[in-house]
Amino acid sequence: MCDQTFLAITFGPCDSCSENRPLMNLYIKTEPINYCSLCMEIMACQGLASGETLKSLKAESETLRKKLEEERKKLHDVELEKVAEKAEALGELNMKTRRTLKGHGNKVLCMDWCKDKRRIVSSSQDGKVIVWDAFTTNKEHAVTMPTTWVMACAYAPSGCAIACGGLDNKCSVYPLSLDKDENLAAKKKSVAMHTNYLSGCTFTNSDMQILTSSGDGTSALWDVESGQLLQSFHGHSADVLTLDLAPSETGNTFVSGGSDKKANVWDLRSGQNVQSFDTHDSDINCVKYYPSGDAFASASDDSTCRLFDLRADREVSIYSKDSIMFGAASVDFSLSGRLLFAGYNDYTINVWDVLKGTRVAILFGHENRVSSLRVSPDGTAFCSGSWDNTLRIWA
Amino acid sequence: MERVIVAMQDPDMGVKMRNQRLLITVIPHAMTGNDVIEWLIQKYNITEEEARHLGGLLVQYGYIYPLRDPRSLLLRSDDSPYRFQTPYFWTSSRWPASELDYAIYLAKKNIRKQGELVDYEKENYSILHKRINHTWDFVVMQAREQLRASKQRRKADRIVLECQEQAYWLINKPCVNMPLYYHYTTTIQLRYYYYTTIIHRRALGRNRVKSSICLESFMKYSEQYLHHDPIMSGCLPSNPWISDDTAHWTINTDMVGTPTRLRVERWSFSFMELLNDSMGRREFMIYLEKEFSAENLCFWVACEDLRHGESSKIILKVEEVYKNFLAPGAARWVNIDSKTMERTLEGIKRPHRFIMDDAQMHIYFLMKKDSYPRYLKSELYKNMLAKAIVPQETKKSVFPFMRRQRHSSPSPAMVTQATEDDGKAKGAGPTGTSSTTNSQI
Known about the structure:
- Chain A: May interact with RGS9; this interaction stabilizes both proteins and increases RGS9 GTPase-activating protein (GAP) activity, hence accelerating the deactivation of D(2) dopamine receptor-mediated signaling.
- Chain A: This is G protein subunit beta 5.
- Chain A: One of its GO terms (biological process) is signal transduction.
- Chain A: Belongs to the WD repeat G protein beta family.
- Chain A: InterPro entries: G-protein_beta_1-5, WD40/YVTN_repeat-like_dom_sf, WD40_G-protein_beta-like, WD40_PAC1, WD40_repeat_CS, WD40_repeat_dom_sf, WD40_rpt.
- The complex is a heterodimer of chains A (about 400) and B (about 450).
- Chain A is mainly beta.
- In chain A, about 50% of the residues are buried.
- Chain A contains 3 helices and 31 strands.
- Chain B is mainly alpha-helical and about 450 residues long.
- Chain B has helices spanning about 1-10, 35-45, 50-60, 100-110, 120-130, 135-150, 155-170, 180-205, 210-225, 230-235, 240-245, 245-250, 260-265, 270-275, 280-290, 295-310, 315-325, 340-350, 355-375, 380-385, 410-425, and strands at about 20, 25-30, 65, 80-85.
- Chain B has a 4-stranded antiparallel β-sheet.
- In chain B, strand 1 (about 20) and strand 2 form a beta hairpin.
- The longest helix of chain B is centred in the middle third of the chain and has 24 residues, at about 180-205.
- Chain B is elongated and about 100 Å long.
- Chains A and B meet through strand 2, helix 1, helix 2 and strand 20 of A and helix 6, helix 7, helix 8, helix 9 and helix 10 of B.
């Protein structure tokens, strides 16, 4: 028989903040009450100015949040499923692996397409960054980074350079030289400097500026030529894991997702956090804009993908299934925005109908987690990179 | 690990328990180290070495604690008595162990057995006393209350509880040398809630659009682009990835002689589509020249170049733009409203990347509302549409397994270099615009 415990229940709702946490006994006037460790600490400091301010601030934040929920509900007059009823049902999707790119010695962590619709840059855990012509499956350039876990890589819009970074906390830009014998690493240019790992990077509309996101909770905009910091974006309370630039007309915003379960929309010019969405239950691994720029989709460790509308300022659809229990690592839209491709940690890729919210197909083929997924610039195919060291092109 | 422990404690199939004598009091439900190891061997069919290793881990993680020599976290395969730790004290359920708890525990021990704290415990006690001094009253009060409550229990139970607590803290004592842990968390919290309050307030002030309107727009967009989506509707003549034929890409290159019908249709979807396609932009420019309003597009292109170009060239570019488009009597003077013009001219005195944004926006919307719709109705566009080709779908080859040879294409890096050399040879390009930032692919 196990020891009995005379102390309180181990886990449950705290008497003070009502959140489910591990509990401890607190004696107030000889009565034992159950508090979670945080409230216990606050209680211990009662009388101290900061303790009181914290409590009142927390309460104010809660009331505002409830008010915000109400406001959002007022304008929500119809669900996406209802509107999508008149959309045509999709026929059967017949996608197969058309190319398999083998050559990485370790897990593929990230990939990006070139604007010429056939070249790809991919980065892996062993520090290698390879530029492929995916159509012929030839490797065109290979760079070995001085760091392992290269978690972010991007192709420049002109096709003349690549950017990559990871555990070295930096983002480096390599101009792609045509001379096969030239050592690419020699021309490396360090652009971004963060205080924690680099989780994502992308070029803005030209080769001259890079937007990066980092594990230190910030995102930043850098000038490539001088390496100068142009703007930084603070607001996530945990690691920022992903970012995407808006395709909209004025092209001035981007969205980032982080471990604090929030997706934030930022203004590039002012550095302000314009909108925030926090309906996910776990880390957001990937965010991507809808082709029109009016919405974005996110993939999270809570095994769901969600669609958030920027004009209605709310979540409009959830793509999930009981049989999917593993987190989603990466998402991207097809060219028309009707299909959403999502790569999961259970080695599969699920294809969702964005409007109707149903799953259209499930694609098997990878032998380990799918870590990144991108649709080609002209929408003819998409590429998925996985921890099984390969990349696959599906069409 | 916890599953193993629970199985062990099963009254029928678990480890044999006996009452053990420890000094004077009898401790119920104890077992010997030997029993534990034997049970593990039997249940999991493992060797003695492995059982010892597993048992050792169980002790190190705090699920079983020794009674006779509590500070040594080893599983001895002899008569030494052990007990199971109550789930309340399992590491998994009480994480993280906070400094406050530890302080209360040490205070209790101090009160109970004056001067019986071990060296490192005395050290930790004084460090904590210094650090969380402001809460010391609270700590002492809690310690006293807990002792008082425990006095109301039976002696045997009390001893059990003491053993449990001691075992727990042996394993889980927090690192007291970490700097100002408590203050760190409050400041972080304060900042976080303050920040979220601002965000929520700002969000409340936003203008929101009705869901029905937003969702309809998604429907329309998907429908409009349905035939342009190769994955959904296939592409002509064939998808290069499936048929290994790059014809689709060749007929859609930037500077091809005759564009495809789909491409020209796309220009009518939105103004941005027209501008994003370099051929569309070129056609639009030709149209505007006929209308004598080409300076608008040139101005817009120059502003884009300023926004996305090198930081070092900003001042130079701003001057150029002013000279060509904004100065009174300029060669390509653009018609902006007086207010925006005033603001822009003011701003030019301190040039930065976004100084032309207002003016650029004004011109953009001017083109979008006026020139663009007229272009779509013009002869120029209609002719383009009529000329546009609709490629034939490639006939499926007779031998479907024969793979066509895949040819590589010139790297974009090479193409850009070649045109740069050309540009230098030819001298100055068209006025007002720099062509290197245009996409070459």
